[in-house]
Design a protein that fits this description.
The structure is a single chain. A six-stranded mixed β-sheet has the order 3-2-1-4-5-6, with helices on both faces. The longest helix has 20 residues. It is elongated. The termini are far apart. With 292 residues, it is of the alpha/beta class.
């Protein structure tokens, strides 16, 4: 199978098609689960693309839904086969946010709000390493290196010369002021932010302390949008032990409106660059003064 196949997206699309078939049949997830002698949660996870789905699962579900067109069944079976392939991220072992990576890899645009750190797609290797070490105290050196490698590989989406990810990042001033690693690492990170913010497909806005209370104070979030209209926009909320993916139109709309408020309250792109450069100078001065 071609390497361009994204198993996460295939699984997601397959789940959407299976949900449509169930709804056309007029059945609830609970009724389907009873027919197949499985849990209702399994049906729900198959439909939302959060669980691996086998060709046997597809065959059984199509039988319950009375699908007689072999072309439809064969198409769904092929999607199931593709969905069980491994994405590039599987080579790095158990990555807790692998579902998100799969979505990010296929996304057309990403809007992200970060309140305490620089977004992963805009981190330098040194900053990423320091973030991982600080947020995961029990991690081994190998664990840290693996996470950093994954983060750097993810960044290929925004450096792809032919199909770069459209990235819009609103970053709270706190992320620019908190010492992560060292003053020298922070200076390097600020200069890196400025450099990438000058690319036409990347917008970086700073939300300064002077704004006061704002909608993003409830926590960080990301909104992913896709090229294919069949793929619903998704809000991603990262957790400690589990993540949350919101796809209902009302949920996505609520977060989209909140993001617009954040963009309006933040400094514009040019003023944000000047602000970050000033912060970089502050970090440079601190380094020269031996505060590292």
């Amino acid at each position: 199978m071609a390497s361009s196949v994204n198993p996460t997206v295939r699984r997601r699309r397959l789940g959407q098609e299976l949900r449509k078939l169930r709804e056309l049949k007029g059945m609830t997830a609970e009724e389907v689960a009873e027919r197949l002698l499985v849990s209702q949660s399994k049906i729900s996870r198959l439909e939302n693309g959060r669980r691996s789905i086998s060709q046997r699962d597809v065959r059984d579900l199509c039988s319950v839904y009375g699908v007689e067109d072999h072309r439809i069944v064969d198409s769904l079976m092929q999607m199931a086969k593709e969905s069980r392939q491994q994405g590039w991220w599987h080579a790095f072992g158990d990555i807790p946010y692998s579902v998100y990576i799969g979505l990010e890899t296929d996304a057309a645009s990403l809007r992200v709000y970060e309140g305490s750190l620089v977004p992963g797609l805009l981190q330098t290797p040194n900053y990423a390493s320091a973030v991982t070490e600080g947020s995961w105290p029990e991690a081994t050196t190998a664990d840290v290196e693996r996470r950093v490698q994954v983060r750097m590989r993810r960044q290929e989406r925004i450096t792809d010369p032919e199909n770069p990810l459209r990235l819009w990042a609103v970053i709270d001033e706190s992320a620019l002021r908190r010492v992560v690693g060292s003053n020298a690492i922070m200076r390097e990170q600020m200069e890196h932010l400025v450099e990438f913010s000058m690319r036409p497909h990347i917008t970086v806005q700073v939300l300064p302390y002077s704004v006061g209370a704002h909608p993003g104070m409830y926590g960080k979030f990301s909104i992913l949008e896709f090229h294919d209209p069949q793929d619903a926009s998704t809000v991603y909320l990262e957790g400690i032990t589990s993540d949350l993916y919101l796809e209902k139109p009302n949920d996505v709309q609520a977060y989209s409106v909140m993001y617009e408020h954040l963009r309006m309250q933040a400094l514009n792109a040019e003023d944000s660059r000047r602000f970050i450069l000033k912060v970089a100078e502050d970090w440079a001065t601190a380094t020269e003064d031996g505060e590292d």
